[in-house]
Amino acid sequence: MPKKILIGKVLKISGKNTISVEVEREVLHHMYNKLIKKTKKYKAHVERENQYKAGDVVSIIEHRPISKTKHWLVIEKSGN
To answer: SS3 letters for the chain?
Structure first.
């Protein structure tokens, strides 16, 4: 089964190796047929600290559980 890769914006750095990433997606409303923006926050693991700052756009990949709430790993800094 392939691992999911998501692209999102760094919200904050919480601790040495953890960042919060906000992923935004658009879904079609079932009744009104309008696009709605939905956001979700993920906690991702970073190998080296001080590598990212708030506002950076990053790619995260699904990973084995690292802690109670951390199941994602940052793979690269995307453009923008």
So the answer is: CCCCEEEEEEEEECCCCEEEEEEEEEEECCCCCCEEEEEEEEEEECCCCCCCCCCCEEEEEECCCCCCCCCEEEEEECCC
- Side chain identity at residue 37, one-letter code: K
Residues 53, 56, 25, 70, CA torsion sign: negative
Q: Which amino acid is at 33?
A: N
Count other C-beta atoms under 10 Å from residue 75's C-beta: 13
- Domains, the chain, in order of start with CATH, read 5-77 (2.40.50.140)
- What's the whole-model pTM score? 0.86
In percent, the amount of the chain with pLDDT more than 90 equals: 84
HSE (side-chain half, CA atoms, 13 Å) at 34: 3
